[in-house]
Design brief:
Elements lengths: L1 E3 L14 H7 L4 E4 L35 H12 L10 E9 L9 E5 L4 E5 L5 E7 L2 E8 L9 E5 L4 E8 L2 H5 L16 E6 L1 H5 L4 H5 L5 E5 L7 E5 L2 E2 L6 E2 L2 E2 L17 E7 L11 E7 L10 E8 L3 E11 L3 E12 L8 E14 L2 E15 L14 E17 L3 E18 L6 E4 L6 E5 L4 E23 L2 E17 L6 E17 L2 E12 L5 E13 L2 E12 L3 H5 L5 E2 L7 E14 L4 E20 L9 H4 L3 H13 L5 E4 L5 E20 L5 E16 L16 E11 L2 E10 L2 E2 L4 H5 L4 E2 L2 E13 L2 E8 L7 E3 L2 E2 L4 E9 L1
Length: 823
C-alpha cells in the first residue's frame, strides 16, 4: 500500500500532541473549520483553521493547551464577525473517522464531553460524524462501538458559532502496542519537501529491492550498469545525487547508492522517499532524495525469528535470517543475509554477505537508538559489453561498516535535545590483474581514425577508501502553540586513501550550523524560514537561506511553495578518486544553485484518493559532472601530418569505400574526468496519485516531465544540450490487490529518451543518446499460515532489450521465487 505527499502536507497548527504520542497512539487529528456547504453558521464571516502538522511537522504541546486558546478564538470571532448575536452561541464538531490506511469506519459513536455537557454522534457509511449544540470551551473526544481504539482521549476547543473539523484516525490494539523509533519527526527533513510512502506485505518481506520503489517516485531517475550488484545512479531534477542523501532509520550513511539493488539488512515496514530542495538542515547539497527504511520495533506480536530462501534466473540465490525481541525498556534486532548471482553474462558474478543490528532503549526522558551495518561484496566489472569485448578478470571488491547512535532528551512537552554520532568506513578496490589486450574503437568524427585503448592492467588495483566521523546536535523547542524553532550543528571529519597509497592522506573537516523557524502567520498559513551556514574543507564559507509557505485551500487540499539557495561540495572521491573508467579532479569547485518549487497536495472521497502535483525551477552554476576526456586525433600522427589536404581527403574516401585501413592512434589515458559545468538549468513538473477504490485494491501512478538545458558549457557539453541521465518524460503505474493472505501486484514503467552519461567508449563511438523503453514487473505473496509465506517475482516480463547506461545491457526476463518463515 502507498500513500503519497504525506511529508509535504504540513498544515497550519494550533494544537498537536507530541509526535511520539501521536504515532504510538495512532492519532492523526485534523481539526479544521468546515467549509462544506451549510456547515458555517449564518452570519459568520471568517473561518479558523485548527489542524495537526504532518509527520514532518513536530509542533508539540501538552494536554490542556487549549485552555487559553478558546477565549482568544472567541474574542477574535467577536472582533471579526460583528454580525454575531450578543447571546453566547453554540459550536459544532464534525470530522471523518478512518483507519490508519485511510478506510472510513462506519457506526462509530463519537462522544464529546466536558464538566458541563455530554453529546455524541455516529459515523455514517463515509465515516463522517457531527456533534452539534456544544457549549464553548475545552471538550474531550472519545470513541466507542468499535474494536479500534483512540488513545489517549483527545481535547479540542469548541468555539461559539463555528464548526470545527476534527478528523480521527484509529488503530487496532496490535498497532497501539507497537512502539516505533520513527515516532518523532524526520531529523533532517523539511516541511517544504514532497514525499512518497510505501508500505505493505511486499515491502515488509523484502521481496523487492529498494531501487524498484525509487523507480516509482516522480522526479527520480534510476540507472544501473547492467546486472545485479552493478553500480546504480540516481538523478533528481538533472543532478546526480550523492550517498549523503540516503538515510536509513534517520542516520546518514555513505555507500548506499551502490546498494540500491540489494538488501538493507533491516526488517522494513515503511519506506519514505523525500525529494526536492533539501531543507536548511541538510548538508548543503543542491537537490536530492532522502529515504528512510522504518523498522517495526517493540511490537509484542513481532516474530522472534524469521528466515527466507529465494532462488531464480541468472543464478540468483538469497538466504536470510533475523531475530528480534523487546521488553518495556529496550527493543533489539539482528539479521544476516547472503546473496549471489552470475547474471549469465561474462564476468558479472555477484557475491554479497551482510549483517545488521539495532538496539532501542527508553530510560525516563531519555531514548536511545544504536545500530550497525556491515557487508562485504564482490562483483565482476566486465565493462560495456554491448560495445566492446568483456574484460574477464576485472572486478570490484567492497567492504563497508557503519555504526551510529542517536540519543534524545525531552525536557517537558516543549523542548527536545538530540545528539547523533555516526562513523563509517568504506573500502573499495577496483582490480584488473591481467592485460586483456588492446581494443580498437572506430571514431564517430573521423572515419579514417581508429582509437587504440589499452587494458590498463594493474595487479594491485586502485583504492577508493573512505572513513567518516560525524557528530550532530539539535535543540528544538516550542515557544507557543504557533511558534516552533530549531537550532543545530554538525562537525564532520573525512579521510580517504586513493589509487595505490596505503595511507589516508586526503583529509577534510566540515562544519555547519543551521536554524529554522516555523510560525503560524494566520490560521491557515504556515511559514518556515531558515538557513544553513557551512564551511567544507578548503572551500569558502557558504550561507544558504531557504523558506517555504504552506496554505490550506480547504476540502482536504494544501498548497505549498518554497525556494532557496544551495551548494554542492565535491566529495573526496570526485577530487582524488580513480577507477579504470574515471578519475578525480582536484581543481573542481563547489556547485551553487537557486531553486524554487510549488505544489498542491490533497485527498478526495474520504481519503480514498491522494493526489500530488508540483512544478520546479532550478538554476545551477558550476555543476559537477563527468564530462572531460582526451581523444587523440589523426593530426597527432607524423605520417598523417605529412599528407597534403588532397591526400587526407583521399585517405578518408578510401577508408570509407574499404580500399584502405584506418590509421590507429593510441589513447594515453582513456578515462573521463569530473569538471564544473558553468551554467545549466532544470524546469519540470511532477504528479502522482494513490487510490484505494476498495479496501483490497491499491493503485498508484507517477509522471515526471523534465526539461534540462546547458546554458554555458564546456568543450564536450555544449549550450543547448540536455543534462545527462534525466529523461524528458517518464512514468509508472502500479496496481496491488490484497485478499486475505494473498497479495498480487504489477508495475508498468516507461522511461523516455535521454542523454547518456559520459564515458570514454560510448563518446568515441558517438553514442550520446539512450533510447526509451518500457518494462513490466509482477509479484505475488501467498500466506499458507500466519508464519509461512511464498513469494514470486517476475521482472521485465516482456524481455525488453534496453540500456540504462550506454554499453551495459540490462537484464532480460528474470523470474524468482522464495519462502519466508517466522515464529
Amino acid at each position: 500500500m502507498s500513500r503519497a505527499a504525506e511529508s509535504g502536507s504540513s498544515e497550519a497548527t494550533i494544537r498537536a500532541l507530541p509526535a511520539s504520542d501521536r504515532e504510538a497512539a495512532g492519532i492523526g487529528i485534523g481539526s479544521r473549520c468546515s467549509r462544506r456547504a451549510g456547515a458555517q453558521p449564518k452570519g459568520s464571516t471568517v473561518s479558523f483553521v485548527v489542524s495537526n502538522l504532518s509527520s514532518l511537522s513536530p509542533i508539540r504541546s501538552g494536554r490542556g493547551s487549549f485552555r487559553w486558546l478558546a477565549p482568544l478564538l472567541t474574542l477574535a470571532m467577536v472582533t471579526l464577525a460583528p454580525s454575531f448575536g450578543a447571546a453566547q452561541g453554540l459550536g459544532t464538531l464534525v470530522g471523518i473517522v478512518t483507519t490508519l490506511s485511510g478506510v472510513p469506519v462506519e457506526g462509530v459513536t463519537v462522544t464529546v464531553s466536558s464538566d458541563e455537557q455530554t453529546a455524541s454522534g455516529t459515523t455514517d457509511e463515509d465515516g463522517e460524524y457531527e456533534v452539534s449544540e456544544l457549549l464553548p470551551g475545552l471538550v474531550s473526544i472519545a470513541i466507542s462501538d468499535t474494536d479500534l481504539v483512540l488513545v489517549p482521549e483527545l481535547e479540542v476547543g469548541v468555539v461559539a458559532n463555528i464548526t470545527i473539523r476534527s478528523d480521527l484516525i484509529l488503530r487496532s490494539l496490535d498497532e497501539v502496542a507497537m512502539r516505533r523509533w520513527d515516532a518523532s519527526r524526520f531529523f533532517e527533513a523539511s516541511p517544504g519537501l514532497a514525499a512518497s510512502l510505501f508500505a505493505g506485505d511486499t515491502l515488509e518481506a523484502g521481496v523487492l529491492p529498494l531501487s524498484n520503489y525509487l523507480e516509482r517516485v516522480p522526479g527520480v531517475a534510476v540507472a544501473r550498469e547492467g546486472g545485479i550488484g552493478q553500480p546504480t545512479a540516481l538523478v533528481v531534477r538533472g543532478v546526480e545525487v550523492t550517498d549523503r542523501f540516503l538515510v536509513t532509520d534517520g542516520t546518514p550513511l555513505e555507500g548506499t547508492v551502490q546498494r540500491l539493488h540489494g538488501w538493507d539488512g533491516q526488517v522494513t515496514q515503511r519506506l519514505e522517499v523525500v525529494r526536492g530542495l533539501p531543507s536548511s538542515r541538510r548538508d548543503g547539497e543542491l537537490t536530492g532524495v532522502v529515504h528512510r527504511l522504518i523498522r517495526p520495533t517493540g511490537d509484542p506480536a513481532s516474530p522472534l525469528f524469521s528466515a527466507s530462501v529465494e532462488g531464480g534466473d541468472y543464478g540468483w540465490r538469497q538466504y536470510g535470517a533475523g531475530t528480534s525481541g523487546s521488553s518495556r525498556v529496550y527493543d533489539w534486532h539482528l539479521s544476516a543475509q547472503h546473496a549471489e548471482a552470475d547474471n549469465e553474462q561474462p564476468n558479472t558474478d555477484y557475491r554479497r554477505t551482510a549483517m545488521a543490528g539495532s538496539l532501542d532503549f527508553i530510560r525516563s526522558a531519555i531514548t536511545g537508538h544504536l545500530m550497525f551495518q556491515g557487508e562485504t561484496s564482490e562483483v565482476g566489472r566486465s565493462g560495456p559489453t554491448s560495445l566492446v569485448r568483456p574484460d574477464l578478470d576485472a572486478r570490484q571488491e567492497r567492504t563497508r561498516f557503519s555504526g551510529a547512535g542517536t540519543f534524545r532528551l525531552g525536557r517537558g512537552q516543549r523542548s527536545l535535545h538530540e545528539l547523533r554520532l555516526v562513523g563509517t568506513q568504506s573500502d573499495i578496490r577496483s582490480l584488473n590483474p591481467l592485460d586483456s589486450g588492446t581494443m580498437l574503437l572506430q571514431s564517430s568524427e573521423e572515419v579514417a581514425r581508429l582509437v587504440a585503448v589499452s587494458d590498463l592492467a594493474l595487479a594491485g588495483g586502485r583504492r577508493n577508501d573512505l572513513r567518516t566521523g560525524r557528530v550532530s546536535y539539535e535543540y528544538a523547542f516550542e515557544i507557543d502553540e504557533f511558534h516552533y524553532m530549531t537550532f543545530g550543528g554538525t562537525a564532520e571529519g573525512e579521510a580517504g586513501r586513493f589509487t595505490r597509497t596505503n595511507r589516508y592522506d586526503q583529509t577534510r573537516a566540515n562544519l555547519s550550523l543551521y536554524a529554522e523557524d516555523r510560525v503560524q502567520l494566520f490560521p491557515d498559513l504556515l511559514l518556515t524560514a531558515g538557513g544553513r551556514f557551512v564551511k567544507n574543507g578548503p572551500y569558502g564559507f557558504a550561507a544558504m537561506p531557504r523558506g517555504s509557505l504552506t496554505y490550506e485551500l480547504g476540502w482536504g487540499f494544501l498548497a505549498r511553495a518554497g525556494g532557496g539557495f544551495g551548494v554542492g561540495t565535491p566529495t573526496l572521491a570526485q577530487l582524488f578518486g580513480e577507477t579504470f573508467l574515471w578519475e578525480g579532479n582536484p581543481e573542481i569547485d563547489q556547485a551553487k544553485s537557486r531553486a524554487a518549487d510549488a505544489g498542491i497536495f490533497g485527498s478526495l472521497w474520504g481519503n480514498r484518493v491522494q493526489v500530488e502535483a508540483s512544478a520546479y525551477w532550478h538554476e545551477y552554476e558550476d555543476l559537477i559532472v563527468l564530462g572531460e576526456f582526451d581523444v587523440p586525433r589523426l593530426d597527432t600522427l607524423p605520417d598523417y601530418r605529412a599528407l597534403t589536404l588532397a591526400e587526407r581527403l583521399q585517405l578518408q574516401s578510401d577508408v570509407w569505400t574499404g580500399v584502405r585501413q584506418p590509421l590507429v592512434v593510441a589513447a594515453v589515458d582513456p578515462r573521463v574526468t569530473f569538471v564544473n559545468l558553468p551554467r545549466s538549468r532544470a524546469i519540470g513538473a511532477e504528479a502522482s496519485f494513490t487510490a484505494m477504490p476498495v479496501t483490497q485494491v491499491t493503485l498508484q501512478g507517477a509522471y515526471t516531465f523534465s526539461d534540462t538545458e546547458v546554458r554555458r558549457g564546456t568543450r564536450l557539453l555544449r549550450p543547448g544540450d540536455r543534462l545527462p541521465g534525466m529523461p524528458e518524460h517518464q512514468g509508472s503505474f502500479t496496481a496491488d490487490v490484497h485478499v486475505a493472505r494473498v497479495s498480487v501486484g504489477g508495475t508498468f514503467r516507461y522511461v523516455g529518451k535521454r542523454t547518456a552519461p559520459f564515458d570514454y567508449v560510448s563518446q568515441v563511438l558517438g553514442l550520446g543518446t539512450l533510447s526509451s523503453y518500457t518494462r513490466y514487473d509482477m509479484r505475488a505473496r501467498i500466506g499458507l499460515t500466519d508464519g509461512l509465506w511464498l513469494s514470486m517475482v517476475g521482472e521485465n516480463l516482456t524481455d525488453e532489450q534496453y540500456q540504462e547506461v550506454p554499453g551495459y545491457p540490462a537484464l532480460g526476463r528474470m523470474l524468482r521465487a522464495g519462502v519466508q518463515v517466522s515464529f
